[in-house]
Every structure is written in structure tokens, then in C-alpha cells.
Amino acid sequence: MYKVAIIGASGYTGAQLVQLVQQHPSLTLAGTYVSENSADAGKNIGALHGNLAHVDATLTPISNEILVALTSQVDFIFLATPHEASHDWMPTLSSGRAKVLDLSGAFRLKDTAVFEQFYGFAHTQKNSLDVSVYGLAEWHEDKIANASVIAVPGCYPTASLTALKPLAENGLLDANVRPVINAVSGVSGAGRKASLTTSFFEVSLHAYGVLGHRHTPEIEAYLGTPVIFTPHLGNFKRGILATITVKLAPNVSQSQLDAVYQDAYNGKPIVRLRDSFPKIDDVAHTPFVDLHWKLDEASGYAVVTAAIDNVMKGAASQAIQCLNIMTKQPVETGLVL
Amino acid sequence: MYKVAIIGASGYTGAQLVQLVQQHPSLTLAGTYVSENSADAGKNIGALHGNLAHVDATLTPISNEILVALTSQVDFIFLATPHEASHDWMPTLSSGRAKVLDLSGAFRLKDTAVFEQFYGFAHTQKNSLDVSVYGLAEWHEDKIANASVIAVPGCYPTASLTALKPLAENGLLDANVRPVINAVSGVSGAGRKASLTTSFFEVSLHAYGVLGHRHTPEIEAYLGTPVIFTPHLGNFKRGILATITVKLAPNVSQSQLDAVYQDAYNGKPIVRLRDSFPKIDDVAHTPFVDLHWKLDEASGYAVVTAAIDNVMKGAASQAIQCLNIMTKQPVETGLVL
Amino acid sequence: MYKVAIIGASGYTGAQLVQLVQQHPSLTLAGTYVSENSADAGKNIGALHGNLAHVDATLTPISNEILVALTSQVDFIFLATPHEASHDWMPTLSSGRAKVLDLSGAFRLKDTAVFEQFYGFAHTQKNSLDVSVYGLAEWHEDKIANASVIAVPGCYPTASLTALKPLAENGLLDANVRPVINAVSGVSGAGRKASLTTSFFEVSLHAYGVLGHRHTPEIEAYLGTPVIFTPHLGNFKRGILATITVKLAPNVSQSQLDAVYQDAYNGKPIVRLRDSFPKIDDVAHTPFVDLHWKLDEASGYAVVTAAIDNVMKGAASQAIQCLNIMTKQPVETGLVL
Amino acid sequence: MYKVAIIGASGYTGAQLVQLVQQHPSLTLAGTYVSENSADAGKNIGALHGNLAHVDATLTPISNEILVALTSQVDFIFLATPHEASHDWMPTLSSGRAKVLDLSGAFRLKDTAVFEQFYGFAHTQKNSLDVSVYGLAEWHEDKIANASVIAVPGCYPTASLTALKPLAENGLLDANVRPVINAVSGVSGAGRKASLTTSFFEVSLHAYGVLGHRHTPEIEAYLGTPVIFTPHLGNFKRGILATITVKLAPNVSQSQLDAVYQDAYNGKPIVRLRDSFPKIDDVAHTPFVDLHWKLDEASGYAVVTAAIDNVMKGAASQAIQCLNIMTKQPVETGLVL
Fold this sequence. Notes:
The structure is a homotetramer.
Chain A lengths: L1 E6 L4 H12 L3 E8 L10 H4 L10 E3 L2 H10 L2 E4 L3 H11 L5 E4 L9 H8 L6 H6 L1 E2 L6 H5 L3 E3 L3 H15 L10 E6 L20 E2 L7 H9 L4 E6 L6 E8 L6 H12 L5 E3 L6 H4 L5 E8 L4 E8 L3 H15 L11
Parallel strand pairs in A: 1-2, 1-4, 2-3, 4-5, 5-7, 6-7, 8-10, 12-13
Antiparallel strand pairs in A: 8-11, 9-10, 11-14, 13-14
């Protein structure tokens, strides 16, 4: 059994991690932490997340002493923390035997100038950034297996890259026309906090972060080509549907396209190649990415849609996939029951 | 044309009043006000409420000078303000020719001890309280017609009293068994503010204010008998459905019950006696109260359900009904188009 | 007062038309009709649509005699009927003094080969098709004013064309990159009928009609350039949000783009140029189209979003706009109150 | 490992059973069946229920031969079938070594006159009815352990009885005032089928089955006292919230009430006694019943709310609980992970 600590357990991703660790056959929950001044310190996690009312896990305020102690006391540390906290704590947390899985955006972008532009503060943890591995589980398995610091991908990039990488890696994209990614996320993507924007009455489908969202450079960095990415807030709790329109290189056929996806995801149980365009609820509360695609051979345009649960494959369950890879277990262990 | 000012125009009720005043054939909007320190001061109302993007109405910060000026400059003042503000300002606002329609709870309970228990502060405006009239439009028409201060009823009491008063006024209730009122409200009932409770992810049907909600004494005061009232928060934006279970006096028949409702609401166009149990969406965005009922003659228990839009009949459109009565216009003027 | 008949009044569009005719100052409802064998024949419309419970309008089964009679008895006939019915009845209905506003797709496509491909039956009403005018109210005002048969545009084309025509008409689109239209529609778009697809439990955001929806040729015909259009079903009742990504011609600036939209919609009260990306609920239950756009000058890509209520501007209220134009009334009469 | 067959696997309850059997450590899925003429025959279950897209389970049309064969080939047969089918097939199905868990209403009411009144057909399987055991897992454990036929309780009765039995069994209910049960169910309760009533646009909170729902006699039979039960349809997919108002016997205190619930559910891991009134989403996708209560000592009225997932504790997971009891495993095996 591996010992696991979760820092930032009060949020939606943290609570999901608690649930996944509970149901995982080789993980044991060693501690759940919240920020030092959190109003939730001392509460049981079930007081915040009613679905976990049967779970015995106290939210302990984090401290520098605890950060240091965890590096030798546990095997894995999950950070479901603000970007700044992950950034500042990483050198300490990664200094011992514990491996760190960071679900914030602090270590996803290797280019610190781009990072500063999109995250609003300078990146000063160059060493941690150098060793961190981008945890896109289906594509970076070898590197993940040997990493000590994992930057778990963002929710939109996970959906977008799973759909687009088979095309990019096989040279199927027309170089002159950018892929257009339209994605709709459930409200959990905004995190657990009081805000007028995510107030029930105010939520209604709309675009945001247009032509400037911080997941754009993340997608571009790991795809290797520029894209147009437009996120939307939808009136549902969990899930992302990404609808991606691409112009393909000349003369690609539907059967070639099919083969590319089948090759890419053969033996990858978390990616489900579907017979029809997936719904959000097909993947809600699951670890899966569902993909379906269609090509208009006459024009060379294709549409691919990818559905994920943003709290699961877009965050918590992808972190567990990485842990499974790091511990040489089947990638779906504790996820597909 | 009557001149109207709306104080507290930034909230859901205030915005609804703006829309209703705009569409009313004999009302003109003289001013829209927000609290002195509101972050919304100076904005156009459409910046807060996208549905009003075409309306030209600036949110002006209220001040004591404006309060005084309004009493002579306009004919009607709507207060969609916190209880405390309505309480404190009423003597000033009701000192001139303007009539005041208060949508807060400040002047609904005549018993100041009960008021203090449920609202948390002492009522010190005895004179205003004495002259205020409870604006339950279908039941207090004569008093409303001559009032200078209207306490517009709460949303839950409006639904509950419309359903129960025909029974109580006709002596049909069993005196030994309390009416049980279960009501579910849309999230707009909680007002426009950032709050974890009304955050989209957190909203899911549940009871609140059990055996202690401040609308209980309001219902009891205007019904004349104690009730058990259990409010719930539902996952929708607008509307209240109140399901009311009563034990009737011995030997009441279904046809007697039908007659009592028909008599009570004959000539009352805002109350619709339906052929089946109404849905929330039958009344959302409308001024109507929809009623339907059924009696089990064997046991003497009956179930009545009442559906309203809490922002409309539960607040704004009932205030307009009162104004229509005060100006001798048909009660549905500007409401049923 | 103009006399109006509505054929197909039992559906969502028909019921919306009834409500709009009721509130229009110069229209009177002369009759509401359903198909000859409809199970709803003889019912009051309020029995089907609870929001209209106060309306006195019986659903009369249509017959050939009635069709003929209507052409001389009323001024305007609204067809909220299946494509086949509109197609078959049009010669009869348009043979008298009554003008016809058809909300089906029967007369939108002038190219009968394309029509047959996308609608599945041959178009045999060449004369009616020749005289019919596409009722995109903000763009075809002159033709609408003199038309006897209006093909009211589809919901998706209305949103898409309102967003794209200012760009196309001003030559701002890059000719080598197709506009990408992603749109999400509420469930009312599927019509009022029992279907597993639109059953509450089954509805969850997903793409459909990918690279083959019949609104694609409609958009292309009235835009004058090919597009990639991907519709989605969303988990809400009313509204469409279209998110449109375009590559602009070289060197277009944000201020040029702004000017183009302002010029296009100056004096058009139904189109609201917004300061931020609109939400579905900003336009639900309203006749408006809300537009907002943003350009990335570096890449030349721009994103425009358009929000409409599919039952209103996407169907019923646009039909009323056309009627207002045909009767020389301000276009927003009876719509913006 | 126990072999399990599921008849009626195409519906929501059937699909949930498939998922629960998959994740159960001591169950193996031997077959999934649909009705003989089902349009879904031959499909994989994932084609109907996208969340199960990774599951390999073909929907086989049932036949008399299969019914007979199953009785010797499997250990447990789950019937997620219409009442009539369960009624007709039970003698055959229960004639071998297989034990039968029936999720229909066919064997819940021992009084065949009442059964006929509420189910609309005569009960002719007297022997099966005599041996069947009502599978309310927390209350009938001993009988369930030795049963060969389980009548899995209805969804509303499960929520209602879990809340009320501690009061009734301890003589705390006032005999002269009926408990009032108001419950709201998600749309999955209506089953997987095309219907205008459960069409997305039509669903909006309303009461139905008032003073005549077939779950009323089921609740009364197993509670031992008459109740007033009013079900509602809510605009969500899964879950039931039952809000129950009772008048207690004289002089019951809050601490007595607390003790009664704690005693009743001590050592019952599926019932969670909560610190606050539960939300639907606290239990959605879980096997739990969440309870909370409050007493007004002055009046003697108390309010109890019970939340369950109707597809889980209201159907599938309660059936698994029964199976766990029948196989001497901890009741939460395969349910609480």
C-alpha cells in the first residue's frame, strides 16, 4: 500500500481525489490538508462535501513543518492548490522520497515568459520546472513512469490534446488553417467558492476567456501547432465537451482517419472510441475520454468531439492514472471497477 | 402617467420591477437607485442584467437628499431593499405625496416581538407599521386602495395564503391538525449575491429553515391559524411550488371544495384555477398564481398546490397589482398583455 | 387590427405565436389550428401549454375548406407546420388576400436539388418558391415589405447570419478558411413530441447533424460562402448560442470590425451589440439577437458569438418582425414592450 | 463468485445493476436480457447507455427457454421488468436454485385486493406472493437472509420507511394525525421511454398521483399506519428527497428523537445520520440514505427528510444489499468502495 497525502482537499478536485484514493486497492489516505487560514480547518470533509459524509477525514491546516514532514512520511503528495502555492512549495515537497502530482497550472508551461504572461506572476522555480513531466497519461507514459514531479494537465488541454494529438503526430493537419476548439465546461471547473459568476441564477451558456485563455498556450505547447480555443461556461455541474474543427492535409480519407485514432488508442482503456458523438453524461463521474469524429472528404474538414469529466480525467483521475504508471500498475487501476 | 422610482434596482426583484414598469401603459420610470456604496453605482442596469441590455437606466447611489426629494417628485416608490433599509427609511419616504411599496419584510408583521425574534432587530417604526397595509392583492383590495404604505407579501406567504385562505375564511380547516406547507423555491429567492450556498455546483434540492423560517409567522398572521411550513431550495431559477396538505372539517365534499375556490377567485384574473396540478414553468415569467386541489373524502385530507413566479407574483408583479388597485386600474394592467 | 390565423398552434413555436399575437397592439387572433387527426383537436391551448391557461383559444382541426376560407378571411396566416404540409398547402394558402408566413423549411432554399438532398422529398411548388422571400428581418427589409409569402429563417441560420453577414457583406472574410460555426440549441428546437432523444434523462450536451445538417446550405445560400456548421443539443429549454470563428482578410483591425457591426445594426433595435459575450438567458423569452466579438490582430482570427431565443427570434418573433415590416409598423412593435 | 442474470437490462435500473455487478468483488455477470420483441435486442448495452460504452454485454431477447435455463445456470436473477412480466414469470423463475430479486411492484403488496386496485390487474401468483420477502434491507435482514424471492421496495417507500419506521416502531407517532410525505423524484423514476411527460421541455416541478399513488399502500403496509403521500416530478435526473412532517406523541423531546434514530441505524452503514438537511446530490450515484430531522417541542411536530438515489437505494443498490445479506457478506459489499 502506498501512502498518499492530499493538499487542498476542500475543493472539488481535492474531494474527488479523496474518493478515488478511498476506492483504490493499493492506496491509503495518510492526510487531507487545507490552507493555513482556511475556515474549513478542523472540519470533516463530509461537512463540505455531503457525498463524502461517511468518510473519516479531517481537514488539517497545512504548515511548513507538515510540508517538510510529508516528504518522508508519504509516497505521493497530490497538490490541488492554487498555482502560487504549488509554485512556492514545490522545491520543499519534491526534496524527499515523496513524489508530487501537482494539479495546478504551475508546472505545465516550460516557457517562463509565456507562463508569466498567462498566470500573472514570474516563475522562479526553474529546477522544479526542469524536472517536471506533463502528465498526459496516454501520451507521456515513459516519462511519467520515471518522474518525481508531475504537472497534471489542465481540463481543456486534456480533452483537446486527446482529440488532436493523433492528427498532429501523424501529420494530418493542414498547416495553414488553425484547429478551432470550442469547449463547454461544467461549473465545477471554476472551483468551490462564492462568486456571482458561478451563482446558480447567473449561470447560462456563454463564451469567456476568448482568444486569451491560459489553456491555449498549454494546448499549443503539447500539440506543437497554434490553435483557436474558445471556452464556455455551461449550466451543468461536471464535464467538458470539446468540439474541434480541423482542416486536414489533402486527400486524407475517412478510413485513414479512423485508423489513426485506432492506432493511437489501441490498448489505452481510458480512451473510448465511440460509434456516435458522445454526451457529457456518458463520461460524468467516470475516468473516460470519449472520442468520435467525422470527415467531409469533399472539403477536407473534419469534426472531432471529446467528452471528459473535468474533475476526473480533467484533474483527479488523470492524476491517479499517473500514479498507476509510476507504480507499474495497470493505468485504470482503481478507476475502472 | 405615474412617475415611479425603484430603490434597490440591482437585485433580481428590482430588475424585474424595471422591466414591468417599462411595459406598463401608465407608468414611467423616474429613477433607479442602489445603495450608497454599491459597486454597481453608475452602471447601466443592462450591465448587471443582460436581459435589460436595451434599457437605458443608470443605477444611481441613493442618499438622504434623494430619499427626501423622491417623496415629492414621484408618485410611487418601490423598495427592493434589505429589511433594515426599508425599516429605517420608511418615515422619511412616506412623509410626502409619494406612496411606498416595500418589498422587504420590514412591515409585514404587526407584532413587533415576533418581528424581532424572526428578523433579528427591534422594530422602532411603530407609526409606519400602524399605517402599512399587507398587499395580498386578491384579499385586501379595499385596504390597499387607500393605503400610503404597502408591505408587499413574501413569496412563500403569497403562494400559501392564496391556496389556504379560501379554506380558512370558510371554516373548512380541521382545527386540530395543522396545515402542512411544503414549498420549493428557485434560487432567485436568495437574491443576487456571491454565496457558496447558491453557487451552481452546490445547489441541489434540500430543506432549509425547517420549523423556524420567518415566513411562518407571516403566513400564520394572515391566515389566522398555525401551520407547519418547510421551505426548500430547488435547482431552478424562478418559481415556487407550494404543496399544502390539510385536514378538512368533517364531511366537506369535493364539490364544496371546488365551490369555495371558485367563489374566492371569481373575477380575479391573476389567480388561475387549473384542471390539473400546475408546473413551475406554467407560471415562470408570468404574474399568475395557479391552483389545483384534490380531496380524499374518505379520510378528509386534501392536497392543494399553488405555483407562482417568486420574482413576479412573489414580489414585483404583486407590487404592480397593488399600484393598479391604488390607481383604480384593472388589477392586471401591464401584467397580462 | 389585422386578423391572424395560426396553423400548427400546438407546438412550441405555435404557442409562442399565440402569445405574441395576444400581446401585439394591432393583431387579433382569428383562429388556431392543428392537423386534421391531431389528438389535441378540440382542446384549449392552455391544456397543452400551461403558461397559456388564461387564453381562450380552441385548437381546431384544419381541413381543406378551412385552408381555402382563411385566404379571404384573415390578413396573415402563420404556418408552424411540418415542411411537407407547408410545401403542399402553399399554393392554396397564398392564392387569396392573406399573406403567408411559413416557419417551416419548405421555402428557404431556392435550389430544389439541394432542398431534396437535405429535406428528403422533391420540391414541386416552383411558383411559390419563386415568389417567397427569405425573412431575415434586419437584412431583407425591402423585399419583405412587398412579399406575399415569407420563408421565416431557421433558428441556427438566424443566429449565424446575423453574426456573419456584416463580415461577408464588407468583404472581411478570408476566402481560404471557412467560418466555423458551433452552436448549442435548447431542447425546444426539437419540437413538442415524445422522443427518447429529447427525454429529460437522455439530454446532455452533444453534437449532432455533424457535417450534414440542413441548416448548413441555408446559411451558405444567404451568406454566399461555405461554412462548417456543427449544431449541439444543450440541457436547457430555450435559446441558441452560436460561437463563430473566422479568419479575416489581412490587416483588419479591431476598430474596423467594431465599425462594421455598428454600421450594420445602427437603427436595428432587435440586434443588441453587447459589451461582453452574451449568455443564453440574456435573450431567453425575448426577441433580441445579442452579439459580441473579439479579434486577435496578430493571427487575424476573430470570434463572434450570437445569442437568440430559438422559439422567438429563431422562429415566432422574427415572423412578427416580418409582419410588422409588411404592415409598415416599427419592426419591434408588440415585441419590445 | 456468484453468477448473476439481469432481465430488463435496457432500462435505467437494469443498466445500474450491470454497473454494480461489474464492480462487485464476488459477482459475475452471466447474462443481460431484454424483452422478446425489444428493438434493443442484439445491441451492446453501451449503445443505449453511453456511460457503459466500455462494457461488453449484449442484450439478449428473453424467451421461455432462457427463463427455465436460468433457474439452474445462475445463482441470482434480477428482474428489472414490468410488473406484469415479473408477476407472470415468477413461478418459473423461482422453481430452481436461482434466487430472484424482483425490482417491479408485483410482489410488494400482500393484499391482492389492494394490489389489483393500484396495479390494474389481478394477482394470480399466490404461492410466489406468500414466499416473497419485502427487501427493505435495514429492517428485514433476517427474513431476507433466508428468502428465495425478494420484492425489492419501491423508491418512494424506501425513502419514506427509512425515515418513518424508527418513529412507528417506537410508538412515537400521534395516532390521530397522519404523517405527511412530500417527495420529489428525478426523471429516471419514470423509466427509459419516449413520453411527452418526461420530455425535457415539459419537465418542471409539479405534483402527480395525488392521493392515489400506488406507493401509498406500500408505505402504509410496511409502516403499519396510514399516511398522506404526495409525489412530485423534479427537473433532475436522479434522486428522491422525501420531506416528512409528523405529529409526535405527547412530550417527546429532541434528544429522545435523536436516540431513536441512532439506535435504529447503529451498525447500518448505508444509512447516514446527517448533521444538516441533506441534498439530493449528496446521495446521487451512491447507495446511501441520508436522514436528518428536527422537532418543534412546543407543538410536537417534527420534520424528517430522507434523500436517496432512486436508481440506487431506490432500486439497484438495495437489490445488491439484499444479495449481500443472502450471501452472508457485509451489506455494503461492492457498494461502498
